[in-house]
Design brief:
11 helices; 12 strands; alpha/beta; two-stranded antiparallel sheet; TIM Barrel; eight-stranded parallel beta barrel; 40% helix
Length: 316
């Protein structure tokens, strides 16, 4: 597994990380906790050293499952979680009030069963709380040893400027995949300029870039992907399938799963430190991890870029 330094931190993260939104069990359909634990442990066995979670994933349930998965293996894992999204049942809201941050970090430490969080990330901006107030509290918590490094998620450069004036900022977590490339225009150049690592999420675009869906799927109850993403309906479905035809060709020639081609593509971009990918079972986790063992050739990247330009760029 290839590893890269995360920004200006001392953390060296695997190019494929384990994302745990599905592990929370409240958006992606049924999830078996024991299978999730086995999947995370298998990923660790095969070189994945970054596990990314958040309190918002299943109202803390994802963090609890991660805590069980890494028990006895703490020194093998970089634990990343988040702050700033609160929920009450189905209701979610943003809060970066200092008192809320203090409560959240203690809850996360307890659920994860760790003494310190390696990477603590602001999940989303909170326009109702002065960012400087939030950062002052985060600095106190960092000085108290609650977390090692600060990252942000879904932040624009102007807000990252504010963070950088107050604290060391080592990472940004933005959406990034073959079907969501908006960060390439100015976010990635900003991160490269300021030595900020990036953890791209949504690498497989809700699973459509695995290539397993040959027809528009009907998801099981509790799996809300089709409502959250417009990828599983026209006018996007057919152009995406044409792109997947090229990914399938490359996968066949490489004797690799289509998902590994999509993961490799996301990790090839200069400035992308790690591609976060979820897994609901051990087979998926092992396949995702194996994507970190090889790289696309320049010719394969050219073929993918050509297909993106021809098929999906006009409709995205």
């Amino acid at each position: 597994m290839r590893k890269r330094q995360l920004g200006t931190s001392e953390l060296h993260v695997s190019v494929v990380g384990f994302g745990t939104w599905a592990t929370g069990g409240d958006f992606w359909g049924s999830v078996d906790d024991n299978e999730s634990i086995r999947a995370m442990q298998a990923a660790i066995d095969h070189g994945v050293n970054l596990i990314d979670t958040a309190p918002a994933y299943g109202s803390g349930h994802s963090e609890e499952v991660v805590g069980r998965a890494i028990a006895g293996r703490r020194d093998e894992v970089i634990v990343a979680t988040k702050v700033g999204i609160l929920r009450d049942g189905e209701r979610l809201w943003r809060s970066l009030k200092p008192e809320s941050i203090r409560r959240e970090v203690e809850d996360s430490l307890r659920r994860l069963n760790v003494d310190v969080i390696d990477l603590y990330q602001i999940h989303w901006p909170d326009s109702r709380t002065p960012l400087e107030d939030s950062l002052a509290e985060l600095k106190r918590l960092q000085d108290a040893g609650k977390f090692r490094y600060l990252g942000v998620s879904n932040f624009k450069p102007s807000l990252m400027d504010t963070v950088r004036r107050e604290m060391q900022l080592v990472s940004l977590q933005p959406p990034y995949s073959l079907l969501d490339r908006k960060i390439e225009s100015h976010i990635l150049p900003y991160c490269r300029e300021h030595s900020i690592g990036t953890l791209g999420y949504g690498t497989l675009a809700a699973g459509i870039l695995t290539g397993k869906f040959r027809e528009i799927p009907t998801f099981a109850p509790g799996d809300d992907r089709s409502a959250f993403y417009n990828l599983f309906r026209e006018p996007l479905w057919t152009p995406i399938q044409r792109l997947l035809d090229v990914l399938r060709e490359i996968a066949g020639q490489r004797d690799r799963p289509v998902a590994q081609v999509a993961i490799n593509w996301a990790a090839r971009e200069a400035g992308v430190t790690c591609a976060l990918v979820g897994a609901k079972n051990t087979a998926q986790a092992l396949s995702n991890a194996a994507a970190g063992e090889w790289e696309l050739s320049a010719e394969e990247i050219r073929r993918i870029e050509s297909a993106c330009k021809q098929h999906v760029a006009p409709v995205l």
